């Protein structure tokens, strides 16, 4: 009985120390990355491509919360290898600060969380929470230069395919770069029509669907990256619709309710495509 009480006291003291340590780490993280959090929030508010940003950490926390019963049963055995991740995160943070590149500092935050979990709790717990941690990547704006290049490629492909489809339908059309010239007006394939705006949030959603699916890593990866051609196809159909509407009504849809509605249709088309593919692959 005495041994039982002693063990309980030791366990209670350990839990208190652990809770205190986590609170201290949390406070240090907040203070250490406060400027980064401000930058992220500003990007979420000003950049429509990342309007989904505030939802990502909430979803990550919810995924960890769902695993709370599994995590309680796992053995907590901290690993010193976590220190290498922590050191790497610190170095990455220094690089971000020196170069004033906020997205690098944001990645260091994710790497730091991985290192802390591994150091305090070990590989078994890290394995369970690794995806929710990595899912935070979707809240961070990607580097502008390669993203802009990828957007240009999507715009060129979308304008080319739209031109071919409208020509097949019998419309008189001429193309120069990403600009489509029709008899009743000009249609430009701008950045929002490249598919990039919906693609980032769709990749996040596709990853989430794959995470809760059953199957091999390869099949899940196929499911995630299927969002790219699906989003491209949906946006091409949207451009063709704009072209037909322009020719039939003499009105260019560049903003307003109909423009927003077609954007939502692109998102829903891609989402339904991913769900259909998931069923076909029996994931």
Which structural traits does this protein have?
283 residues; mainly alpha; 4% strand; disordered N terminus
Question: How many helical elements?
Answer: 12
Strand elements, count: 3
Percentage of residues in DSSP E strands = under 5%
Oligomer: single chain
Shape summary:
elongated
| Tally of domains | 2
The description of the largest β-sheet is: 3 strands, antiparallel
Strand order of the largest sheet: 1-2-3
What would the average pLDDT be, to the nearest integer? 81
Radius of gyration: 24 Å
Q: H/E series, N to C?
A: HHHHHHHHEEEHHHH
Brief account:
This protein has 283 residues and is mainly alpha-helical. It contains twelve helices and three strands.
Layout of helices and strands, plus pairs?
Layout: H1 2-32, H2 34-46, H3 55-66, H4 68-73, H5 82-99, H6 102-121, H7 123-134, H8 144-168, E1 173-176, E2 179-182, E3 185-188, H9 196-211, H10 217-225, H11 227-249, H12 257-280
Antiparallel strand pairs: 1-2, 2-3
Helix pairs in contact: 2-6, 3-7, 5-6, 6-7, 8-11, 9-10, 9-11, 9-12, 11-12
């Amino acid at each position: 009985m005495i041994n039982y009480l002693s063990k309980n006291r030791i366990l209670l003291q350990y839990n208190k120390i652990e809770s205190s340590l986590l609170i201290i780490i949390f406070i240090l993280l907040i203070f250490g990355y406060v400027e980064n959090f401000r930058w992220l929030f500003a990007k979420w508010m000003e950049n429509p491509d990342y309007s989904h940003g505030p939802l990502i950490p909430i979803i990550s926390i919810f995924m960890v919360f769902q695993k709370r019963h599994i995590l309680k049963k796992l053995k907590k055995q901290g690993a010193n290898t976590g220190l290498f991740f922590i050191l790497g995160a610190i170095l990455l943070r220094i690089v971000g600060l020196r170069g004033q590149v906020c997205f690098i500092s944001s990645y260091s935050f994710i790497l730091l969380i991985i290192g802390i979990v591994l150091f305090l709790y070990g590989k078994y717990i890290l394995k369970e929470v690794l995806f929710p941690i990595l899912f935070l990547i979707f809240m961070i704006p990607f580097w502008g230069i390669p993203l802009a290049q990828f957007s240009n490629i999507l715009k060129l492909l979308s304008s080319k395919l739209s031109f071919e489809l409208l020509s097949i339908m019998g419309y008189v059309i001429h193309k120069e770069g990403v600009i489509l010239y029709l008899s009743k007006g000009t249609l430009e394939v701008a950045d929002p029509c490249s598919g990039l705006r919906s693609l980032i949030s769709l990749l996040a959603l596709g990853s989430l669907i794959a995470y809760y699916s059953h199957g091999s890593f390869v099949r899940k990866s196929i499911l995630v990256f299927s969002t790219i051609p699906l989003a491209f196809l949906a946006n091409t159909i949207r451009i063709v619709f704009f072209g037909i509407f322009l020719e039939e009504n003499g009105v260019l849809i560049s903003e307003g309710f109909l423009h927003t509605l077609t954007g939502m249709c692109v998102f829903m088309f891609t989402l339904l495509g991913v769900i259909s593919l998931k069923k076909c692959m029996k994931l």
